[in-house]
Structure formats: C-alpha cells, structure tokens
C-alpha cells in the first residue's frame, strides 16, 4: 500500500513562497485595465494550501460592479487590440510564451502551493499551457477567409473572419494555467479582449501569467482578471448577461455549464463549454498488458485523479483481469503521497475537504454493494493534515455502483470485467456525458470499430495521454460544446462575415 509522508516532511507554505525567484509574480490584487486593484467593496477572501491547510494569502472578493468595470476596460482595449495586425499580435503572444517558459519553476511552485499538484506535473502544465500561446500565435496569422466564384457575372463574394469582441472566460482549479492559456491564446490571437474569472482555489497562477502578459507588451485592458469567492454566482451571472460580452468560454461541471448557457441565451452569446466526463478505459484480451497498465497509471493518477479526462471506469476483459489487477497493484504500491514540493511525491492532495468526502462516499458505496478493496480505500485524514486520499483499487465493481455513474475526481481505480466487444461498447456509452475514452487492442479491425463506436469527443488508442495543443479538445452529449486547441479552436473566437460586391 502507498505510504503517506509524515507531517514533518511537509514544507511550510510561507517558506515555500519565499523561495520564488521573482516575487513580483505573486500578486494579491485583481487586474483591471492593466492595474492591480482591490474590489470596490474592499472585501477579501483567503486562499489555502490544500496540502497543509495554511493560508497562502487574501485576494479581492469582487462582485458584479467590478465585473462591469472589467468588461468596460476590455471593450475599450478591444478597439486597439483588434486593429493590431496579426503579425503584431503574434509577436506579443510569442514574447508571452517565452516569458511563461522562462518562469516555469516559479509558476510551477505557485501552482503546487495553491492546488497541490506535484512539482513535475505543475512544471509540465506550465509547458503545456505555454504551448497553446505559441500555437495560436502562429494560427492567428493564418486565419484565412475565402473568395467564392460568383453565380452571376456582376457580383463578387468574399467571406472574412473577424474577432467577436469581449470574451468572458471562466476556468477551473485543476489546471489553473493551461485552462486559461488554451482559451486566452485563441481569443487574443483572433483579436479579442478577455475578462477572466479564475477558480477561487487557484487565482494566483492566473495573476502570475497576467503579469507576464503585461511584460510581453500586451496592452492594458486586453486581459482582465476578476477574483471572487463568495460572489461566484453573481460574477458569473454578470459575465453571462452583460450585453458587452460577446462570448462565454467555460470549463467545469456539466451542472454549472447548463446554468451559464441558460444565462448566456438571454443575449444570444456565443458559448463554448468543456464540461464533465466519465471516461471508459477498456483493455481487450489481445492488448499488450504492460502498455495498458502504463496507460492507466498516466491517465488515472495524474493530479491525484482530478482531471476531466481521467480514466473513470476501467473495463478489463475477464480472461486477463487477474493479471492486469496484479500489475496495477504493484504500480500503485510505488506511488508516494504527500506535498507536491517534496521530492518523489507523485500523488498530492484533493483540492478541498468536500472533494475528500465525495470520493470517500463513492468508495464506501461500492464497498457496501459488494466491491473488494485491493489497496487503499480510505481517507488519510488521521495521518496527514491536508486533503489526502489513499490511491485505491477496487474490484468486483458493478454498473449499479456510484463509481460507475459519477465522475470520481480522485485517485480511485474501479475495475470492471466484460466479455465481448459489442457488450463493452454499449456499457461504455451508457452515460449522459462523452468527453474522452481509452482502449487497448492490437486488432486493427477492432481498433477502427471501437474508435468509431465509442460516443466521446476524444479517443486514446493504446495510450492514456491524449492532450496536446494540436488536437481539438472537447466532448459530445452533456460534455459540452465547441473545441479548444488545434486549428478549430481559433474559429471558436471568430465571426464569419459575408461580403457581396455588386459591380
């Protein structure tokens, strides 16, 4: 069983922050019109380290009035930024990309302290997040329109692409940099300005990369950051209903996405939503078992299982079940649980206490309905200060258990068995969401059948890692609308205008 670190090995939150190479990246104010500002109400909220529960700092608890100021700032700056040539915007974005990478260690440290992600993962996310800035900087100069041959002799037809205006961006805590850059990179490359509402658990990462955007020469007001905790609903409502906001881009739960979509419909805003998942991970009897185990470890336990594309339901063919479970158990036993800044740790805390409670409730439900615990299966509250849960493997799992129906968002690996291909495709699709799916097989015919048959937006075949700036990230069914990344991601932030010219 994975062994948690003792409390004596957990570093002090404040001493860790003092080790930043550039302390000016760590802002305690929000950002509107290029200025670091308090809330109009002067209210603040505290941010805590989920591994130590220590106070990191306090930030402005903004409300709708502050959002209105941010939107007004973004609207003014849009007039300037949208008139920049694509090459000029590219130069600013590439400078921002360079600065993010140059400050990778500081950004990674800030991220680890506020969301618990182990250092290697945090620094990996910084690189991943930066990749979207570079990608869209380069895509922005290739935002082509079309000249269409006219049906009549005396007209000409041109289709041009133009930016939308002000974009409201709402991001989650589990990827506090990459979820911002994946949206903002595309929005800015297309010529839009933005108002960002980062998660209240992880606002410091957003503020740090905004500081670097200023240094890169992106004009004041193009990027605005509104922080809040107690007024989340009010801030979200203002962004979705403000007539000067042209689009809402949101990553988070399906339930919240539906509320935002309803609010945005009042002004017919463009929307793109990347919502919840319940990813199937299927291992067929002809799979390379060791490769499948590698894929599962990469997909399931990254960020302590707190990603939207995590393997959630692990289906293993009955003929290889015992061998597969044994190999996974050996790998899980090598995992180290603790503060992400401690060398060797690869499983950090869950983000907050209610996440810990939810995961434990899902596990206990499975146990009460007959599941067996191979390893883990409990909270580490008694031995560790923060929100830690033991990496867990469950077997004898059935489709009527909550772990089959809900997104776990924790280091819990429920393993089901199956008999044949047709059966497992049907079971994999038996959910209202469809973000990502994975399967392992060496049969080329089966690979095509299953890849086409799984009702998801993204499929990993013989791999547990699918995220890249080159791919269109997004889902089907209740996993959302639109795509992020890839050449398709830029079009989410552009309008098509048809110009007919009579000669």
Automatic annotation (TrEMBL):
GO terms for biological process: gamma-aminobutyric acid catabolic process. Pathway: Amino-acid degradation; 4-aminobutanoate degradation. Pfam families: Aldedh. GO terms for molecular function: aldehyde dehydrogenase [NAD(P)+] activity; succinate-semialdehyde dehydrogenase (NAD+) activity. Its EC number is 1.2.1.16. The active site is at 274. Keywords: Oxidoreductase. It catalyses: succinate semialdehyde + NADP(+) + H2O = succinate + NADPH + 2 H(+); succinate semialdehyde + NAD(+) + H2O = succinate + NADH + 2 H(+). It is an enzyme of class 1 (oxidoreductase). Residues 36-499 form the Aldehyde dehydrogenase domain. InterPro entries: Ald_DH/histidinol_DH (IPR016161), Ald_DH_C (IPR016163), Ald_DH_CS_CYS (IPR016160), Ald_DH_CS_GLU (IPR029510), Ald_DH_N (IPR016162), Aldehyde_DH_dom (IPR015590), Aldehyde_DH_Superfamily (IPR050740), Succ_semiAld_DH (IPR010102). The keyword Oxidoreductase applies. It comes from the Eukaryota. Signal peptide: none annotated. Belongs to the aldehyde dehydrogenase family. This is Succinate-semialdehyde dehydrogenase. It comes from Mycoemilia scoparia. The lineage of its organism: Eukaryota, Fungi, Fungi incertae sedis, Zoopagomycota, Kickxellomycotina.
């Amino acid at each position: 069983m994975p062994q948690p670190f003792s409390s004596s090995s957990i570093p002090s939150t404040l001493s860790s922050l003092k080790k930043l190479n550039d302390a000016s990246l760590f802002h305690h104010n929000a950002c509107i019109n290029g200025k670091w500002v308090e809330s109009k109400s002067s209210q603040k909220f505290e941010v805590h380290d989920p591994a130590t529960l220590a106070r990191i700092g306090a930030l402005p608890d903004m409300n709708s009035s502050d959002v209105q100021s941010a939107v007004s700032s973004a609207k003014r700056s849009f007039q300037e930024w949208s008139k920049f040539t694509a090459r000029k915007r590219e130069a600013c974005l590439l400078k921002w990309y360079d600065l993010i990478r140059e400050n990778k260690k500081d950004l990674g440290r800030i991220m680890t302290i506020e969301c618990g992600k182990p250092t290697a993962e945090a620094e990996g996310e910084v690189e991943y997040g930066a990749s979207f800035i570079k990608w869209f900087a380069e895509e922005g100069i290739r935002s082509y329109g079309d000249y269409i041959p006219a049906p009549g002799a005396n007209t000409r037809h041109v289709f041009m692409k133009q930016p939308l205006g002000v974009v409201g961006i709402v991001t989650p805590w589990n990827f506090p940099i990459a979820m911002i850059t994946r949206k903002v990179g595309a929005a800015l490359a297309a010529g839009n300005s933005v108002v960002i509402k980062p998660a209240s658990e992880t606002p410091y990462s957003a503020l740090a990369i905004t500081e670097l955007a200023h240094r890169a020469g992106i004009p004041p007001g193009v990027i605005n950051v509104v922080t809040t905790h107690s007024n989340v609903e009010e801030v979200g409502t203002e962004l979705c209903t403000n007539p000067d906001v042209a689009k809402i881009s949101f990553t988070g739960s399906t339930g919240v996405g539906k509320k935002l979509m309803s609010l945005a419909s009042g002004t017919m805003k463009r929307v793109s939503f990347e919502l919840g998942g319940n990813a199937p991970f299927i291992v067929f009897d002809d799979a390379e078992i060791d490769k499948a185990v590698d894929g599962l470890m990469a997909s399931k336990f990254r960020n302590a299982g707190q990603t939207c594309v995590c393997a959630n339901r692990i289906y293993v063919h009955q003929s290889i079940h015992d061998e597969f479970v044994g190999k996974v158990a050996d790998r899980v036993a090598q995992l180290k649980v603790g503060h992400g800044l401690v060398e060797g740790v690869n499983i950090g805390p869950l983000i907050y206490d209610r996440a810990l409670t939810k995961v434990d409730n899902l596990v206990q439900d499975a146990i009460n309905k007959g599941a067996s615990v191979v390893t883990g299966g409990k909270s580490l509250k008694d031995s560790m200060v923060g929100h830690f849960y033991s990496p867990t493997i469950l077997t004898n799992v059935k489709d009527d258990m909550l772990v089959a129906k809900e997104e776990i968002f924790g280091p819990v690996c429920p393993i089901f068995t199956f008999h044949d291909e047709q059966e497992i495709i049907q079971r994999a699709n038996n959910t209202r969401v469809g973000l990502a799916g994975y399967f392992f097989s060496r049969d080329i015919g089966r690979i095509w059948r299953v890849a086409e048959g799984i009702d998801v937006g993204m499929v990993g075949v013989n791999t547990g890692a699918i995220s890249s700036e080159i791919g269109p990230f997004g889902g089907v069914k209740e996993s959302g609308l639109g795509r992020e990344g890839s050449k398709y991601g830029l079009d989410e932030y552009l309008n098509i205008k048809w110009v007919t010219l009579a000669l």
